[in-house]
Amino acid sequence: MSDVASYAVRDGIAVITMDNPPVNGLGNALRAGLMDGLNKADADPAVKGVVIIGSARFFSGGADIREFNQKRLPPDLPDVNDRQDAMKKPLVAAIGGFALGGGLELALACHYRVAAPKSQVGLPEVKLGILPGSGGTQRLPRIVPMAEAVRLMTSGAMLPVEKAQQYGRTFHQVGRFTPTSQTCSACGAKDGPKLLQVRSWQCGACGTVHDRDVNAARNVLAAGRAERLNACGGTVRPGASLARPSEPGTHRGAA
Active site residue: 67, 105, 148, 227, which one? Predict the structure, then answer.
């Protein structure tokens, strides 16, 4: 994996962590890292689900403006979205802070989305005189009312996840899956409750760094599977792929 997209697997959950400060811009290296991670996860029989996560402040702010005057290298974001569409395993976007433009389109192309409280999403491209170009015009109306989707796309306004929850199967509040606390195995001190603790954490008392805890991510995937089954009234055999709540297939560009 690249320096801006790390990949780790534990207990059957692959975690792709975007790390391209300051806003996790989807530049050439990050797009390539995401594609590599998705390919690895889908090909690994030990992986049962995948989580894409950013930082606490930014899931992703969209295109990397530092590369606007540089050659754009493959894969492009629609190529990454195509790979997301083709995933045979549940794919979850774990959103903290902001998911804007291409960052939201990346999240929309996942099967499920979970978000930390006070996170916000939006498609601000219109403020630059353009429309979303990687499926946002197609996928957003599938999970929020058409009128709200049009408002967001034509105004560039941001949507708080607390409001998005009113529309049903849109963004889960990650607090539903929060473990009560983390206990340091070295000194016994308890760390405060975590949101989606898929990253390593450091004990505030003794400084010990602990490995990733993917229990919350596993709960997200299980809850998403259960919700999908409840919505369709069907059953899914073990190991079968999950259908995305929206219609299958890839759609790009403006409607």
Answer: 105
* Residue 247 falls in the annotated catalytic set: no
pTM to 2 decimals?
A: 0.71
**What domain range includes position 78?**
1-255
Cα separation, 50 vs 17, in Å, equals 11
Give per-residue pLDDT as tens, 12-68: 999 999 999 999 999 999 999 999 999 999 999 999 999 999 998 999 999 888 887
Nearest to residue 249, comparing CAs of 138, 126, 122?
A: 138
- Give the residue with greater pLDDT, 226 vs 61: 61
The rounded distance, in Å, linking the Cα atoms of 57 and 45 is 33
Kind and range of the H or E run holding 113: strand 112-115
What's the domain count of the chain? Answer: 1
Q: Which of 125, 148, 227, 247 is catalytic?
A: 125
105 is catalytic: yes
- Contact, 140 vs 108, CB < 8 A? yes
